[in-house]
User: What shape does this take?
Amino acid sequence: MSDTMDDDKLAELFQQLDASVALDLVLILISAVALILALQKALPWLASRLHGKSRHLVLAMVPLLRLIIVIGAFLLAVPVLIEPSLQNMIAIFGSLGLALGFALKDYASSLVAGIVAVGEAPYRNGDWVQIGDTYGEVTHVGMRAVNLVTPDDNLVSIPHLKLWAEPISNANNGTPQLQCTVSFYLHPNHDGAHARELLFDVALTSPYLALGEPIAVVADEQPWGTRYRVRAYPIDARQQFRFATDLTLRGKAELLRRGFALAAVVARPEPDIATG
Amino acid sequence: MASTASENESHPIWELIPLAHYQLPSAPTASSAKRGLSSLKRFFRWRRPAPQGPVKREDELHALAPERLEAVAGPIDWRAAARVLQTALEQRAPTERVWFIIGPPTAGYAELLETWAEQHDRVCIPAPAPEVVTGNHSGWLADWPQDGCLWALPRLERCWLRHPAGLDLIRGLFERLLSARQGFGLIGCDSWTWAYLRFVVPTPAVRALTLQALDGERLARWLASLAAGHDQRPRRFRHAQSGNRVLTVNGGEEMGESAANNELRYLAAQARGNPGVALQRWRSRLRSEPDKPEAADEESDDQPDVETIWVAPALEFALPSGWGEPEALILHALLLHDGLPTEILAALLPAPRARTRDLLWQLAASDVISADPEGIWRVTPSAYPAVRSFLAERDFLTDAC
Assistant: This one.
């Protein structure tokens, strides 16, 4: 008797599910999915034909617009599905929240983090980020996870819930400017001022250099020699590895041509702990 | 030419101005909209068949014979501009020891300085060889005209290379120039080199001048002066599509509005006011009727001596859509140095030499670059505006002109 009453109360929450309601729901669902798919195709296509800031701006719009579509579809679907009263809303969403909280805790956490990721934008499409041990370019910010393509061309999917506990290092933060650091190791006995000037010119003459951005040469002494780090920006973040390679090869060649000796550490066998 | 003397004085063809005052010519509104639409179509790779009904179809016309082309759109005579330069020099302050004449590629600033040096019997300093730029250059710097002698160095862009060993000479030269150890002189410099040198040497203390861009009016008067030729024959340039008069010379009739018509304004804007680019594009559009290359057309029955030359519709030079970073690096290096030979270019770029050579031939096949008899590759005048846009879109450093 009591079960029958509960069933009746539950049934009262929902609209009468007939063919027209089902059709409305299907139409809302299909429209939302079609819009999201079109958006996810069109904006990256448009971005592929743009460069610099405009490319990053277009790419960053994808998750935001998708979220707007999802919220819009949800707001349209709820009144079709349930009787839109405060009591009904609390009952339905309370039950839904409880179910998600227990059964799909991580999934729900990722979805919520996905919404936070759109708002706070710790990563956007086109950014170069480090999450945990993974470094790569953000190619897709989904509802549940973010996709990175690593320099080795591996696609890594990382759930948004990492946002809660892991530090996220963003190298370009929505702009084309990304600092690259290249290290050179020289024998300690050399003219440091000359080496610094030379390495500055190596960066200044790289065809990949973004000329409006600063160049810095930082030196420090290490037990095995002097380490120079050249910090500079390529024109586009996607050129970072080619830029670093160009700096490394031309810097090394020019240092050797001008008589600088590179630091060399002699490999020694591991000491035997037992014998000291 | 119908322009009055007072107009010519207030709006001379050649006007020397500070580089910061350089103004690009604006296109007529309709042409700007048309160009914007055509860029949009190119962006979406949509092409529409050409509109119907030209006054003269392309197959009815022939390109002008070389001798006719030389007669009506011959090479640039820099003597008038050199006189403008000399007048400006005579008014210079005694503290201004060095002037820089900056110009975009193909704009002829080096030829201007060479002409000026020849006119006034000044020492013209040849640019150092590439091995001098990257090697021992103390001899080149020491071998300079004595103080008190006015000299000209027409090609500063040949005094450096974008290479770690290619900046010492230009730094040494600027140090001497700014400390007044090199005397009085004029230095010609490519606008792209000048843009880059801001990051290498202190340039604000020196005087940088440029020739004002040719706008529609200046271009009309300049093209008319070229087309006047030695025979002083009346000539009329008519648009092959619309039949409208584009330019009239040697008293064919009053120039009036036709002097500054939209066609030439558009040409000036398309060429970014660069005389080299404008002249090349103008020459490529001139046509004659094959059976009556110098004959009058039906419109000039009342003036049988008027020669009619047809002007083909303007074409936008579009780069292939698939081009990317390798092409951009080559084009940027060529523009920064105003041309380079293959071996030096390959040494400046990160790509393997064989790949650079292949790309050079591909670019040459698309008429974007060409090599002169000395083997120096340069961006062609017709492709220059498109190449500049291509590089600017990709955030490469561009010039101020």
The beta strands of chain A are 128-131, 134-141, 145-149, 155-159, 168-170, 180-186, 216-222, 225-232. Chain A touches chain B through 26 residues (CB under 8 Å).
